[in-house]
Structure formats: C-alpha cells, structure tokens
Design brief:
The structure is a homodimer. The first copy, chain A, has helices spanning 24-33, 70-75, 121-132, 145-149, 208-216; strands at residues 20-21, 36-42, 47-53, 55-57, 60-66, 81-93, 101-111, 114-115, 151-157, 160-166, 184-192, 197-198. By secondary structure, the first copy, chain A, is of the alpha+beta class. Strand 11 of chain A pairs antiparallel with strand 11 of chain B.
Chain lengths: 220, 220
Amino acid sequence: MSKKLFMTPRTQVKRLKERADYDQALIFAAIDEAIVGVIAFHDGINIHAIPTAIWREGEYLYVHGSNGSRLLKHLQTGAQVCVSISNIHGFVLARSAFHHSINYNAVCIYGAFEIVAESDKEHHMKNFMEHWMPGRWQHVRKPNKNELAATTVMRIAITEAVLKSRQGLPKDDVEDMDQPVWAGIMPLHLQLGTELQVIEQSHTHLPGKKMNAQLRKFHL
Amino acid sequence: MSKKLFMTPRTQVKRLKERADYDQALIFAAIDEAIVGVIAFHDGINIHAIPTAIWREGEYLYVHGSNGSRLLKHLQTGAQVCVSISNIHGFVLARSAFHHSINYNAVCIYGAFEIVAESDKEHHMKNFMEHWMPGRWQHVRKPNKNELAATTVMRIAITEAVLKSRQGLPKDDVEDMDQPVWAGIMPLHLQLGTELQVIEQSHTHLPGKKMNAQLRKFHL
C-alpha cells in the first residue's frame, strides 16, 4: 500500500474533497509529469508567483538557478512557500454548459526550501537532465567550477502536500441526455513538436525518441 | 505601436531584464495561449497558489467557479494577488550543460479581483466557451437560473503586469562549439490528442478541428 501524507490545516481540501488525495505515489507521479512549478512567496510587501523548472528526487523537489535570482535568494531566508504544480489532461465537454470541466491534476506543496551543498550540486544537475533527456549528460560539456559556483540548487521536502484531480467522462444531468450535442473528453498533452530546430546536424546523439517516450509516459 | 504597461516596483524585472517586456499585445498573446493560471494569495496565515481556468476579454482576465470556492471567497475580500500564467515552447539543448534552458513565456499580473454582476455572468461564460470551442455555445444546454446563481465570475484588470520570455536557439560559449553533441530546440506544445473519448456519437457538432486550430494558433 502506498504511503499517505499527513493532512494539515494547509493541505485540507474542503470543497469537492472527493477530488483530493494524500497518496504519496499519486503526488509523486503528478510532479514527475510536470516541467515547471510555480513558487508563491511573500516578500514582506507583496505576493509573487514565479514559474521555474522542477524535478523530483525521492521525497524532495528540486529547483535551481542563478545565485542572483530574487526567488532563490528569498527562498534562502527559510520563507514559507506554496509550490503549485499542475497538468492538464483534457477538456471535458458535457451536454450542458454548466458541467463542462477540465481533466487535470494539481499538487500543492507547503514548507520551506533548503540549500543543497556545493559538493552535491553537479550530481543533482545531472539527475535533472537525465530525467528529461536520458543519456544526454555523458555527451554534453559538463559544468566547470565557475558555472557550478554561480548556480544555486535548492530543495523542499514533499511531506506537506496535497493532490487535487479530475478524471473521467462528463457528468451530465439525466434530463440533458438528449441534448443534440457531442459530449466526451478531448485529451490534451504536452508533446514534442515534429520539427526540431536543429543547429548541429553532424552529431548523432539525438535525444528525440527517448525524450518523447519520457514525455508521453504519463499522458497516454 | 502597441501600448506599453507602466512598470511598478512589483513588476520591475531586475535579473535578465532583457527578457522582460511590458508590451500589452505580447502580454495579451501569452495569456490567450494558456488554459490555466495560478492565483497566489495570502489568507492571513499561509500562502496558497491555486490553478484555475482563465480567459481574457479586452483588458481583463476572468476566472469563475462555485460560490463555495475558498479561492473565490477570498478574492472577494479585495485581497492583493499575483496571477502567474506561463507556457512552455521547447527545451533548449546546448552543447554545455550550463547553457541548457527552456523557451517559454510567463506573465505575472498583480492587483485585486472584482466580482462580475449577476446579469453579466452568462455573457462571460459564453465568451469563455467560445474562446476554446468556437460555435459550441449554441448547441449546449445553456445555464439555468440556479446554475448561474451558484457560479461566481470575477475579473482582474491587466494593467500591472509583466512578461518574461525566452526564445530562439541555444547560446553556447565559443570554446564549446566542437563538443560532439546534438544541439538545438526541441519544440513542445500542448496538443489535442488523436483519440477522442466519445460518449455520444450520434450528434454532429464535433468541435475537434476548430479547437485544435485554436490551440495550435499560438504554438506553430
């Protein structure tokens, strides 16, 4: 049986709570499907919500960026944040306007980020690349000392988190079943385009097929 | 010449400011490309960041939901929020690990939402559906009085907003140009799946082609 995360006042869903889940495996799967997450924080005056690339390793969510990033500098103060990660799976087309919906999953992670040690950064950057482009790391020019020194890597424990999702067919009212309109699901997925913009054709380590498989793994 | 929005302390981008833009037409185009936005708010104790379907009409961004929604109830207090709307256009694969990136656009809108009058709700819900599924509204069963009464529609002026984006090819260092690895852009777009999950085949108002054109308009 998959582990359940503890519900807290911040993660307790009250409306449509049948769509909420605290199952660790489901939360991890939704996170692994997404390329970016939105980190919401309060800088003392205003609220900001900034998208950034994410990846998961075990029970932690990782982000990275320049040392000069306002977001990363703020996270280093130990500020409480909410990370929103969501994926759209389709439009739900019902017979009535009211029952139209979207199939999706959405995770909120609450807590504070911590900084990753200098000596561990390269390892995590490699894991990030290998998540989307398996096998690519061995072919690229690795980060040098200056590049690693200019990069901040941070992580947040995925312990206080909740998943909300909708799946399945439209739920129309019985009296609408004869409405003369098409109803069903129009699936949507983030997909690699067919036209790669190649700038270097002489080399052979083309990541296309493996990466597409990775992207499609969760969508089809 | 397209209108420029005023820069404010909240919307002033300091890092990589060459990626920032205050051009109204570019901001509107990025918003129109997205299905959901993430609304970040502070409830007095914690920060939350909640994804919800969005659409634009003129200089306003609209959202809707159940009267019971915590998010919508909170927005009605006039709370300051940040709405984050982003779209991913491709992975940027460079010769060096360090110069890998993502092509994207991302809008932050700051301000407060206001409620839409009861008598205007149906009009805006129609506009929402017609944005993604042109021509569908005339075929579905329209919202009745109870359904409209149970729905809250809100909007925020798109006046204090900023766009950040990256486009184009990888920018490798000169000394890496002989690295034996493929480099270029792997385009990504949210796309309608080929397998519709049809639950009602006897009717003919299939929105597929028009909707796909709408989705692809901004991506191809």
